[in-house]
Write a structure and sequence with these properties.
The protein is of the alpha/beta class. The chain is 45% helix and 15% strand.
Length: 388
Protein backbone atom coordinates (compact mmCIF):
# COMPACT_ATOMS: atom_id res chain seq x y z
CA UNK A 1 0.00 0.00 0.00
CA UNK A 2 1.23 3.46 -0.89
CA UNK A 3 0.69 6.39 1.49
CA UNK A 4 -0.02 9.51 -0.57
CA UNK A 5 0.01 12.95 1.04
CA UNK A 6 -1.92 15.54 -1.01
CA UNK A 7 -1.39 19.25 -0.51
CA UNK A 8 -4.67 20.87 -1.64
CA UNK A 9 -4.45 24.01 0.46
CA UNK A 10 -4.75 26.15 -2.67
CA UNK A 11 -7.99 24.48 -3.83
CA UNK A 12 -10.37 27.39 -3.36
CA UNK A 13 -11.93 28.02 -6.79
CA UNK A 14 -12.04 26.92 -10.42
CA UNK A 15 -9.83 24.07 -11.58
CA UNK A 16 -8.30 23.48 -8.16
CA UNK A 17 -11.68 22.70 -6.63
CA UNK A 18 -12.72 20.57 -9.61
CA UNK A 19 -9.51 18.57 -9.35
CA UNK A 20 -9.77 17.94 -5.61
CA UNK A 21 -13.46 17.08 -5.70
CA UNK A 22 -12.93 14.44 -8.38
CA UNK A 23 -9.54 12.95 -7.50
CA UNK A 24 -9.73 12.64 -3.71
CA UNK A 25 -12.78 10.31 -3.64
CA UNK A 26 -11.24 8.05 -6.31
CA UNK A 27 -7.98 7.76 -4.39
CA UNK A 28 -9.76 7.20 -1.07
CA UNK A 29 -11.75 4.37 -2.62
CA UNK A 30 -8.68 2.41 -3.72
CA UNK A 31 -7.62 -0.51 -1.49
CA UNK A 32 -3.95 0.04 -2.36
CA UNK A 33 -3.83 3.68 -1.23
CA UNK A 34 -3.68 5.32 2.17
CA UNK A 35 -4.55 8.99 1.84
CA UNK A 36 -3.78 12.13 3.82
CA UNK A 37 -5.06 15.46 2.46
CA UNK A 38 -4.22 18.97 3.66
CA UNK A 39 -7.14 21.29 2.94
CA UNK A 40 -8.10 24.88 3.60
CA UNK A 41 -11.53 26.43 4.10
CA UNK A 42 -14.58 24.19 4.43
CA UNK A 43 -13.75 21.78 1.62
CA UNK A 44 -13.16 18.94 4.07
CA UNK A 45 -16.88 18.85 4.87
CA UNK A 46 -17.53 17.50 1.37
CA UNK A 47 -15.39 14.42 2.07
CA UNK A 48 -16.80 13.25 5.36
CA UNK A 49 -17.01 9.47 5.59
CA UNK A 50 -14.48 8.66 2.88
CA UNK A 51 -12.62 5.41 3.69
CA UNK A 52 -8.91 5.36 4.58
CA UNK A 53 -8.59 9.13 4.27
CA UNK A 54 -7.34 11.63 6.83
CA UNK A 55 -8.04 15.31 6.33
CA UNK A 56 -5.90 18.02 7.90
CA UNK A 57 -7.56 21.42 8.06
CA UNK A 58 -5.09 24.31 7.89
CA UNK A 59 -6.13 27.94 7.88
CA UNK A 60 -3.93 30.81 6.69
CA UNK A 61 -4.44 34.01 4.70
CA UNK A 62 -3.62 33.57 1.01
CA UNK A 63 -0.61 35.88 1.34
CA UNK A 64 0.94 33.60 3.98
CA UNK A 65 -0.11 30.21 2.60
CA UNK A 66 3.13 29.57 0.70
CA UNK A 67 5.22 30.05 3.83
CA UNK A 68 2.82 27.95 5.90
CA UNK A 69 3.26 25.12 3.42
CA UNK A 70 7.05 25.39 3.49
CA UNK A 71 7.21 25.41 7.30
CA UNK A 72 4.39 23.12 8.43
CA UNK A 73 3.89 20.50 5.74
CA UNK A 74 7.32 18.79 6.02
CA UNK A 75 6.64 18.12 9.71
CA UNK A 76 3.15 16.76 8.96
CA UNK A 77 4.46 14.56 6.15
CA UNK A 78 7.12 13.04 8.41
CA UNK A 79 4.63 12.65 11.23
CA UNK A 80 2.18 10.74 8.98
CA UNK A 81 5.04 8.71 7.44
CA UNK A 82 3.81 9.38 3.92
CA UNK A 83 5.58 7.86 0.91
CA UNK A 84 4.95 10.51 -1.75
CA UNK A 85 3.78 14.13 -1.75
CA UNK A 86 1.37 15.34 -4.42
CA UNK A 87 1.40 19.15 -4.49
CA UNK A 88 -1.67 20.26 -6.43
CA UNK A 89 -1.43 24.04 -6.18
CA UNK A 90 1.43 25.14 -8.50
CA UNK A 91 3.97 25.47 -5.68
CA UNK A 92 6.15 22.66 -4.39
CA UNK A 93 8.05 22.22 -1.15
CA UNK A 94 11.63 23.36 -1.44
CA UNK A 95 12.79 20.52 0.79
CA UNK A 96 10.22 17.76 0.67
CA UNK A 97 11.01 14.86 3.02
CA UNK A 98 9.58 12.42 0.45
CA UNK A 99 9.52 12.26 -3.37
CA UNK A 100 7.31 15.04 -4.69
CA UNK A 101 4.98 15.33 -7.68
CA UNK A 102 4.04 18.91 -8.55
CA UNK A 103 0.85 19.64 -10.47
CA UNK A 104 1.44 22.93 -12.23
CA UNK A 105 -1.78 24.28 -13.68
CA UNK A 106 -1.68 28.08 -13.59
CA UNK A 107 -1.10 29.56 -17.02
CA UNK A 108 -1.05 33.13 -15.69
CA UNK A 109 2.56 32.77 -14.63
CA UNK A 110 3.62 32.23 -18.24
CA UNK A 111 1.01 34.43 -19.98
CA UNK A 112 2.24 37.65 -21.55
CA UNK A 113 -1.37 38.54 -22.34
CA UNK A 114 -2.22 38.48 -18.64
CA UNK A 115 0.73 40.68 -17.69
CA UNK A 116 -0.25 43.20 -20.36
CA UNK A 117 -3.86 43.03 -19.21
CA UNK A 118 -2.95 43.86 -15.61
CA UNK A 119 -0.79 46.79 -16.68
CA UNK A 120 -3.49 48.14 -19.01
CA UNK A 121 -5.92 48.13 -16.06
CA UNK A 122 -3.32 49.89 -13.86
CA UNK A 123 -3.32 46.88 -11.54
CA UNK A 124 0.28 47.45 -10.57
CA UNK A 125 0.10 45.73 -7.19
CA UNK A 126 -1.45 42.66 -8.82
CA UNK A 127 1.28 42.74 -11.48
CA UNK A 128 4.01 42.79 -8.82
CA UNK A 129 2.28 39.97 -6.96
CA UNK A 130 2.17 37.99 -10.21
CA UNK A 131 5.90 38.51 -10.72
CA UNK A 132 6.62 37.28 -7.19
CA UNK A 133 4.39 34.23 -7.56
CA UNK A 134 5.89 33.50 -10.97
CA UNK A 135 9.36 33.48 -9.41
CA UNK A 136 8.37 30.80 -6.88
CA UNK A 137 6.28 28.85 -9.43
CA UNK A 138 9.34 28.58 -11.69
CA UNK A 139 11.51 27.53 -8.75
CA UNK A 140 8.85 24.99 -7.75
CA UNK A 141 9.23 23.16 -11.05
CA UNK A 142 12.91 22.72 -10.25
CA UNK A 143 12.31 21.73 -6.61
CA UNK A 144 9.87 18.94 -7.47
CA UNK A 145 11.01 15.46 -8.48
CA UNK A 146 8.46 15.45 -11.31
CA UNK A 147 6.25 18.24 -12.64
CA UNK A 148 2.94 17.33 -14.27
CA UNK A 149 0.84 19.65 -16.47
CA UNK A 150 -2.84 18.96 -17.34
CA UNK A 151 -2.31 19.30 -21.09
CA UNK A 152 0.42 18.83 -23.68
CA UNK A 153 0.12 22.48 -24.68
CA UNK A 154 0.76 23.76 -21.18
CA UNK A 155 3.52 21.21 -20.59
CA UNK A 156 5.32 22.60 -23.63
CA UNK A 157 4.85 26.14 -22.33
CA UNK A 158 6.28 25.19 -18.93
CA UNK A 159 9.28 23.53 -20.57
CA UNK A 160 10.03 26.72 -22.54
CA UNK A 161 9.56 28.86 -19.44
CA UNK A 162 11.62 26.84 -16.96
CA UNK A 163 14.04 24.84 -19.10
CA UNK A 164 13.04 21.79 -17.03
CA UNK A 165 11.32 18.57 -18.12
CA UNK A 166 7.53 18.54 -17.67
CA UNK A 167 5.17 15.67 -18.42
CA UNK A 168 1.51 15.93 -19.39
CA UNK A 169 -1.29 13.92 -17.78
CA UNK A 170 -4.73 15.06 -18.87
CA UNK A 171 -7.25 15.93 -16.23
CA UNK A 172 -10.37 13.84 -16.42
CA UNK A 173 -14.14 13.78 -16.48
CA UNK A 174 -16.72 11.40 -15.03
CA UNK A 175 -20.17 11.96 -16.51
CA UNK A 176 -21.92 9.71 -13.99
CA UNK A 177 -20.44 11.64 -11.06
CA UNK A 178 -21.05 14.97 -12.78
CA UNK A 179 -24.77 14.29 -13.29
CA UNK A 180 -25.41 12.38 -10.06
CA UNK A 181 -27.00 15.22 -8.09
CA UNK A 182 -30.77 15.26 -8.59
CA UNK A 183 -31.54 18.51 -6.77
CA UNK A 184 -33.08 21.42 -8.62
CA UNK A 185 -31.43 24.73 -9.27
CA UNK A 186 -32.34 27.48 -6.80
CA UNK A 187 -35.75 29.08 -7.50
CA UNK A 188 -34.19 32.46 -8.33
CA UNK A 189 -31.88 30.79 -10.86
CA UNK A 190 -34.77 28.88 -12.42
CA UNK A 191 -36.74 32.13 -12.72
CA UNK A 192 -33.86 33.79 -14.59
CA UNK A 193 -33.54 30.80 -16.91
CA UNK A 194 -37.28 30.78 -17.53
CA UNK A 195 -37.09 34.41 -18.62
CA UNK A 196 -34.51 33.36 -21.23
CA UNK A 197 -36.71 30.66 -22.81
CA UNK A 198 -37.07 31.06 -26.57
CA UNK A 199 -33.77 32.89 -26.85
CA UNK A 200 -30.46 31.64 -28.19
CA UNK A 201 -28.71 30.89 -24.89
CA UNK A 202 -24.93 31.27 -24.79
CA UNK A 203 -23.36 29.85 -21.64
CA UNK A 204 -20.06 30.86 -20.04
CA UNK A 205 -19.11 29.07 -16.79
CA UNK A 206 -16.64 31.13 -14.77
CA UNK A 207 -16.46 33.57 -11.89
CA UNK A 208 -15.30 36.95 -13.16
CA UNK A 209 -11.59 37.26 -13.80
CA UNK A 210 -9.45 39.04 -16.36
CA UNK A 211 -7.91 36.10 -18.22
CA UNK A 212 -11.30 34.65 -19.11
CA UNK A 213 -11.67 37.78 -21.24
CA UNK A 214 -15.30 38.65 -20.45
CA UNK A 215 -15.02 41.97 -22.26
CA UNK A 216 -14.50 40.38 -25.69
CA UNK A 217 -17.61 38.26 -25.13
CA UNK A 218 -19.64 41.29 -24.04
CA UNK A 219 -18.48 43.30 -27.09
CA UNK A 220 -19.70 40.50 -29.36
CA UNK A 221 -23.28 40.81 -28.09
CA UNK A 222 -24.34 43.93 -30.07
CA UNK A 223 -22.80 42.39 -33.20
CA UNK A 224 -24.90 39.27 -32.66
CA UNK A 225 -28.00 41.31 -31.89
CA UNK A 226 -27.66 43.19 -35.17
CA UNK A 227 -26.95 40.01 -37.16
CA UNK A 228 -29.58 37.69 -35.67
CA UNK A 229 -32.54 40.03 -35.58
CA UNK A 230 -35.08 37.22 -35.78
CA UNK A 231 -34.02 35.61 -32.49
CA UNK A 232 -33.30 37.11 -29.07
CA UNK A 233 -29.95 36.27 -27.51
CA UNK A 234 -29.12 35.68 -23.85
CA UNK A 235 -25.65 35.32 -22.36
CA UNK A 236 -25.80 33.14 -19.24
CA UNK A 237 -23.03 33.91 -16.73
CA UNK A 238 -22.31 31.91 -13.58
CA UNK A 239 -21.24 35.07 -11.77
CA UNK A 240 -22.45 38.55 -11.01
CA UNK A 241 -20.61 41.60 -12.31
CA UNK A 242 -20.46 43.27 -8.91
CA UNK A 243 -17.38 43.51 -6.71
CA UNK A 244 -19.10 42.39 -3.50
CA UNK A 245 -20.58 39.33 -5.24
CA UNK A 246 -17.44 38.10 -6.96
CA UNK A 247 -14.73 36.03 -5.26
CA UNK A 248 -11.09 36.99 -5.47
CA UNK A 249 -9.42 40.30 -6.19
CA UNK A 250 -10.60 40.80 -9.77
CA UNK A 251 -12.65 43.94 -10.35
CA UNK A 252 -15.74 43.46 -12.53
CA UNK A 253 -16.80 47.12 -12.54
CA UNK A 254 -15.40 47.79 -16.02
CA UNK A 255 -17.25 44.78 -17.43
CA UNK A 256 -20.49 45.93 -15.80
CA UNK A 257 -19.92 49.42 -17.20
CA UNK A 258 -19.31 48.00 -20.68
CA UNK A 259 -22.62 46.11 -20.54
CA UNK A 260 -24.45 49.38 -19.92
CA UNK A 261 -22.46 51.40 -22.45
CA UNK A 262 -23.16 48.89 -25.23
CA UNK A 263 -26.85 48.71 -24.31
CA UNK A 264 -26.85 44.93 -23.84
CA UNK A 265 -28.10 44.73 -20.24
CA UNK A 266 -31.20 42.84 -21.35
CA UNK A 267 -28.98 40.24 -23.08
CA UNK A 268 -26.82 39.42 -20.03
CA UNK A 269 -28.25 37.04 -17.41
CA UNK A 270 -26.14 37.04 -14.25
CA UNK A 271 -27.08 33.76 -12.59
CA UNK A 272 -24.51 33.98 -9.81
CA UNK A 273 -22.48 31.05 -8.53
CA UNK A 274 -23.97 27.65 -9.36
CA UNK A 275 -22.97 24.72 -7.14
CA UNK A 276 -20.67 22.37 -9.04
CA UNK A 277 -23.00 19.44 -8.40
CA UNK A 278 -25.81 21.28 -10.24
CA UNK A 279 -23.88 22.54 -13.24
CA UNK A 280 -25.16 19.69 -15.41
CA UNK A 281 -28.65 21.17 -15.14
CA UNK A 282 -27.39 24.48 -16.45
CA UNK A 283 -25.60 22.93 -19.43
CA UNK A 284 -28.87 21.18 -20.28
CA UNK A 285 -30.53 24.58 -20.71
CA UNK A 286 -27.86 26.09 -22.99
CA UNK A 287 -27.71 26.14 -26.79
CA UNK A 288 -24.00 26.98 -27.12
CA UNK A 289 -20.98 27.12 -24.84
CA UNK A 290 -18.71 30.09 -25.54
CA UNK A 291 -15.32 30.91 -24.01
CA UNK A 292 -13.05 33.80 -25.05
CA UNK A 293 -10.34 32.94 -22.47
CA UNK A 294 -6.83 33.92 -23.52
CA UNK A 295 -5.05 31.72 -20.94
CA UNK A 296 -5.90 28.16 -19.90
CA UNK A 297 -4.19 24.95 -18.83
CA UNK A 298 -7.06 22.49 -19.35
CA UNK A 299 -10.50 24.19 -19.27
CA UNK A 300 -12.80 21.73 -17.51
CA UNK A 301 -16.03 23.46 -18.66
CA UNK A 302 -15.20 22.59 -22.27
CA UNK A 303 -15.29 18.88 -21.43
CA UNK A 304 -18.41 19.34 -19.32
CA UNK A 305 -20.13 21.14 -22.19
CA UNK A 306 -19.11 18.54 -24.78
CA UNK A 307 -20.28 15.70 -22.52
CA UNK A 308 -23.58 17.56 -22.13
CA UNK A 309 -23.95 17.73 -25.93
CA UNK A 310 -23.56 21.52 -26.01
CA UNK A 311 -21.61 22.78 -29.07
CA UNK A 312 -18.42 24.63 -28.07
CA UNK A 313 -17.15 27.90 -29.53
CA UNK A 314 -13.72 28.72 -28.09
CA UNK A 315 -10.89 31.17 -28.48
CA UNK A 316 -8.11 30.05 -30.77
CA UNK A 317 -5.47 29.01 -28.21
CA UNK A 318 -3.49 25.73 -28.16
CA UNK A 319 -5.15 24.31 -25.03
CA UNK A 320 -8.65 24.71 -26.46
CA UNK A 321 -7.62 22.98 -29.69
CA UNK A 322 -6.09 20.13 -27.70
CA UNK A 323 -9.17 19.61 -25.54
CA UNK A 324 -11.89 20.02 -28.16
CA UNK A 325 -10.02 19.01 -31.34
CA UNK A 326 -12.44 18.89 -34.29
CA UNK A 327 -15.46 19.16 -32.00
CA UNK A 328 -15.03 22.93 -31.49
CA UNK A 329 -15.24 26.08 -33.57
CA UNK A 330 -12.53 28.67 -32.91
CA UNK A 331 -12.06 32.44 -33.16
CA UNK A 332 -9.32 34.99 -32.51
CA UNK A 333 -9.23 35.49 -28.74
CA UNK A 334 -9.48 39.29 -28.87
CA UNK A 335 -11.93 39.66 -31.78
CA UNK A 336 -15.61 40.20 -30.87
CA UNK A 337 -16.40 40.15 -34.57
CA UNK A 338 -14.86 36.70 -35.09
CA UNK A 339 -16.62 35.41 -31.99
CA UNK A 340 -19.96 36.66 -33.32
CA UNK A 341 -19.24 35.18 -36.75
CA UNK A 342 -18.49 31.79 -35.16
CA UNK A 343 -21.80 31.87 -33.28
CA UNK A 344 -23.67 32.83 -36.44
CA UNK A 345 -21.92 30.14 -38.45
CA UNK A 346 -23.02 27.44 -36.01
CA UNK A 347 -26.57 28.70 -35.54
CA UNK A 348 -27.31 29.35 -39.22
CA UNK A 349 -25.88 26.12 -40.61
CA UNK A 350 -28.68 23.57 -40.05
CA UNK A 351 -26.60 20.41 -39.70
CA UNK A 352 -23.73 21.97 -37.74
CA UNK A 353 -25.08 21.95 -34.14
CA UNK A 354 -26.01 18.27 -34.32
CA UNK A 355 -22.64 17.34 -35.83
CA UNK A 356 -20.85 19.26 -33.08
CA UNK A 357 -22.97 17.61 -30.39
CA UNK A 358 -22.01 14.14 -31.61
CA UNK A 359 -18.34 15.02 -32.05
CA UNK A 360 -18.22 16.72 -28.65
CA UNK A 361 -19.79 13.82 -26.80
CA UNK A 362 -17.27 11.45 -28.40
CA UNK A 363 -14.36 13.78 -27.61
CA UNK A 364 -15.40 14.12 -23.95
CA UNK A 365 -15.02 10.36 -23.56
CA UNK A 366 -11.28 10.79 -24.11
CA UNK A 367 -10.94 12.23 -20.60
CA UNK A 368 -11.18 10.08 -17.49
CA UNK A 369 -10.50 10.88 -13.83
CA UNK A 370 -9.99 7.18 -13.18
CA UNK A 371 -7.27 7.02 -15.84
CA UNK A 372 -5.71 10.20 -14.47
CA UNK A 373 -5.53 8.70 -10.97
CA UNK A 374 -3.98 5.51 -12.31
CA UNK A 375 -1.28 7.50 -14.12
CA UNK A 376 -0.52 9.58 -11.01
CA UNK A 377 -0.18 6.42 -8.92
CA UNK A 378 2.09 4.81 -11.52
CA UNK A 379 4.25 7.91 -11.34
CA UNK A 380 4.27 7.82 -7.52
CA UNK A 381 5.34 4.18 -7.48
CA UNK A 382 8.13 4.88 -9.96
CA UNK A 383 9.44 7.68 -7.70
CA UNK A 384 9.47 5.34 -4.72
CA UNK A 385 11.29 2.64 -6.69
CA UNK A 386 13.91 5.11 -7.93
CA UNK A 387 14.54 6.39 -4.39
CA UNK A 388 15.30 2.93 -2.98
Amino acid sequence: MIHLFINSLAASAGGGLTYTRNVVPLLADRPDVRLTVALGGKLGEEFRGLPKAEFIQLEAPVARRFWQEQLELPRLIRQRRADVLLSTGNFSLRKSPVPQILLSRNSLYTSRDFSRDLLSRHEYRAWLDLRLRSFFAKRSVRWADVTVAPSEAFAAELKRWTGSPVMAIHHGFDRDAFTRDASDLAPEVQAKLQSAEGALKLLFVSHYNYYRNFETLIRALPVLRDSLRDRPIKLLLTCELARERNPGAYRPENAAKLVKELGVSEMVVELGTIPYQQLHRLYARANLYVTPAYAETFAHPLVEAMASRVPVIASDIPVHHEICADAGVYFDRFSPEELAQAVMRVTTTPEMPHRMEIAGKERAQSFSWKRHVEQILELAHSLIDSSL
